[in-house]
Amino acid sequence: MTPAARLQAAIEIVDEVIASARDDGPPADAIVTRYFKQRRYAGSGDRRAVRELVFRAVRRSAAVPDGGRSAILGLANDQPELLDLFGEPRGPEPVIDGEAEMPASLIPEWLVPELSPLVGEAERPALLERAPLDLRVNAARADRDALLAQFAGGEPTQLSPWGIRLPADTRVDDHPAFREGLVEVQDEGSQLIALACEPATGERILDLCAGAGGKALALAGAAPAAVILATDSNRARLAKLPPRAERAGARIETRLLNPPHELANLSDWAAAADCVLVDAPCSGSGTWRRNPEGRWRLTPDRLDRVVALQAHLLDLAAEFVRPGGRLVYAVCSLLSREGAGQINSFLSRRSSWTMQETGLAAGRSDGSGRLLTPGHDGTDGFFVARLNRPC
């Protein structure tokens, strides 16, 4: 592909990303992959170059662009050499005087007041920087120091005792350690959520919003003899956990929930869990460096709905914690309503519950929990809090 053809391909892909964000379709990564599966003539250099253009254009704009052309024209403001490619054969149409171009911005204006006060202006550019690839070593079967030498460019993470950090875009799915279940791809911040649960041998642990099971696997690696139940209402996501657990040699039971009948679905766990983890659905604002188009998907109405769901899940989770047990709440969000505000509301409804320290040295105190941010901690953004049910 010529440079002009690469630029035209980027415009077409950004058009698809915009449509997908509006229709709640697949993420940008999946769209790029699908685009090139249909165009086998594109070489690896073409794919890398186009992907880089796409994600630079997406990261550059907090608001939804009018179209891919507008987004790429905005990018050309920062890279004037791109303007020379407009009008070239197989490239975009020539630029018209006065044609609209997308201005640069980091955060949607309506979301700025929602941010935690800890996320000041100096920290905000880090929310859109490219993220490294973090691995979690399966502590039940492997030693991090022994595995480090197997990964070129790998370094131990500073906050998680299980983590290995690799350069962005490193491929590990064909690595022997991955195939043998000795490592899993997991951001260091996500690893710290499992660490905050302090799983112990013989405990009964309920992962209420397990999804594909990343944190359940981390819990099993830290406490192989714990009884772990991973649940979710999304059948497709939960179905990914059993093969992952088999590869890791982890004993994790799964159970599909049927809202609004969760209490009946989990009647055998009523007031019986030593620890309940609620890794709740959220805005995803802590993962914008991996999914920058997430800013385009979020609306005030969607945020209101997810905040209401989080409150429901917290109240639901409280029913499964045994007297004296603990509830760990986490969201990959930097918004106060989803973090500190959510815990304050919970404690106002259940005044006998008390806060516990998370045991994490990472992050900063944010209300009744701790906030991890890309700029301060080098992790995805997470809020985490731990609560204790009275005896």
Please provide the ordered H/E string of secondary-structure elements: HHHHEHEEHEHEHEHHEHEHHEHEEEHE
> Helical segment tally?
15
**Helix percentage:** 25-40%
Structural class: alpha/beta
Total strands: the figure is 13
Q: Tell me what the CATH architecture of the largest domain is.
A: 3-Layer(aba) Sandwich
CATH superfamily (homologous) name of the largest domain: Vaccinia Virus protein VP39
Provide the CATH topology of the largest domain. Answer: Rossmann fold
On the 0-100 scale, what is the average pLDDT?
A: 95
- The top level CATH class name of the largest domain: Alpha Beta
Determine Rg (CA atoms, Å).
Answer: 22 Å
Count of spatially separate domains: 3
Proportion of residues in extended strands: 15-25%
Distance between the termini: 67 Å
Low-confidence stretches: none
Topology:
Elements: H1 3-23, H2 28-37, H3 44-60, H4 68-78, E1 133-137, H5 144-148, E2 155-156, E3 163-166, H6 176-179, E4 183-185, H7 188-197, E5 204-207, H8 214-222, E6 227-232, H9 235-238, H10 241-248, E7 253-256, H11 262-265, E8 273-279, H12 294-297, H13 300-318, E9 321-331, H14 340-349, E10 354-356, E11 364-366, E12 369-372, H15 374-377, E13 382-388
Parallel strand pairs: 5-6, 5-8, 6-7, 8-9
Antiparallel strand pairs: 1-3, 1-4, 2-3, 9-13, 10-13, 11-12, 12-13
Helix pairs in contact: 1-2, 1-3, 1-4, 3-4, 7-8
